């Protein structure tokens, strides 16, 4: 039986909801946005900055020079934390801190982790049993993603399609930059599912069946 499930997902595909359903059915912890607060505590950077930089910037010295310590949490310094290196660009500091958090969460036991290159991080972590890891990628047709983004995420109808494409592009850029792999490439996942085929609940049930029988 698989113990650790990572959910990578296109924006508007329902991946977050599916992951939450899977965690509930398996009665295991679910981690998505919670990782931001954990990373903030670990890195000394503010949650707001981490949220903004997760998928908006790539590795590079320019951002360190422009943003610097202005985004650090009050009374903290990312340069003094044990998980940070003084000369590491801020984007890399965020990724490094998130990597440490994700690995520690996986080491604690069964769980579902959404996004943040967790599939790649755990696949290449010697401390994780690969036989217990299931990496899932959730996708959907563009029109379905746009509809869900408008109805559930509150995007304006006139700009929703452009926003969905932009967010997916940012996710791909972030993933490709830090993993040197291609986001959504079937070679890097155990299971790829079109969430529109079965709907969110049935998709979650399918993943649970795979978890229990794989």
Class computed from helices, strands and strand pairing: alpha/beta
Strand order of the largest sheet: 2-3-1-4-5
Rounded to the nearest angstrom, the radius of gyration is 17 Å
Average pLDDT value?
86
Separate helix tally: 10
Assembly level: single chain
Strand content: 5-15%
Q: What helical percentage do the residues reach?
A: 40-55%
Shape: globular
**Biggest β-sheet strands, sense, barrel:** 5 strands, parallel
In whole angstroms, the N-to-C terminal distance is 6 Å
- Which series of helices and strands comes N to C? EHEHHHHEHEHHEHH
Uncertain regions spanning at least 5 consecutive residues: 58-85
User: What is the number of E strands?
Assistant: 5
Q: Your description of this structure?
A:
The chain has ten helices and five strands. By secondary structure, it is α/β, with parallel strands linked by helices. It starts with a strand and ends with a helix. Mean pLDDT is 86; it is low at 58-85.
